[in-house]
Write a structure and sequence with these properties.
By secondary structure, this protein is an alpha+beta fold. The chain contains three helices and four strands, in the order αββββαα. A four-stranded antiparallel beta sheet has the order 2-1-4-3. α1 packs antiparallel against α2.
């Protein structure tokens, strides 16, 4: 992940310029490829400096070099404490910026997944409606089979038992269809509520 692509270089430069005005120190941020990414001078111009790692999710993504162009005895401690403070500020900005970008991407993916689920539920509803039509035809055939078995008398008694079992199967199939339709509607409603939350 290229963390630096999420950061606003102008805003970071403003922070570094404010840091320089406040502390009298210069700062340069280098990305993980050791390229001067921002700052008001290059890192080669420091007489004394302190280097601190920039991190995101416990991974070093670059460094901050804080330094001064002419060294004196008090400079080292001033540079160290100032650079530690600057790194805390920059790491906080990096974390919040990157997490915001990642959250947007996660929400976008989540929304696309919800849309896919809606499509699947629509297909299930369509298929269950087709099954309902089959179940209704099956019920009609069961009634016809019962009538024909009654007409056949004793010879059709076995057929009457088959027709009766088909009738039970048709009733059970109709109940299952209604359950699937109800569950599909519940899923659709839940997905709609989730989508509204986004």
């Amino acid at each position: 992940m290229d963390v630096f692509s999420y950061l606003n270089k102008e805003n970071i430069n403003d922070i570094l310029n404010s840091f320089t005005k406040t502390t009298g120190l210069n700062a340069v941020i280098q990305n993980s490829k050791n390229l001067d990414w921002t700052g008001n001078i290059t890192s080669g111009n420091f007489a004394a400096y302190e280097t601190q790692n920039l991190t995101y999710k416990n991974e070093t993504i670059g460094t901050v070099k804080v330094g001064i162009s002419s060294k004196n005895n008090a400079a080292d401690q001033h540079i160290k404490s100032s650079s530690e403070f600057l790194v805390i500020v920059l790491n906080t900005i990096i974390s919040s910026t990157c997490e915001n970008a990642e959250n947007k991407e996660t929400l976008k993916n989540f929304s696309q997944t919800i849309s896919s689920f809606n499509d699947i539920v629509s297909k299930i509803k369509k298929d269950t409606k087709a099954l309902d039509s089959i179940f209704q035809q099956q019920s009609l055939l069961t009634v016809n089979a019962s009538v024909e078995a009654a007409r056949a008398g004793q010879v059709g008694s076995g057929f009457a038992i088959v027709a009766q079992e088909l009738g039970k199967f048709s009733e059970l199939s109709t109940k299952i269809y209604k359950d699937i339709e109800e569950h599909s509607n519940d899923i659709s409603n839940a997905l709609e509520k989730m989508n509204k939350c986004l």
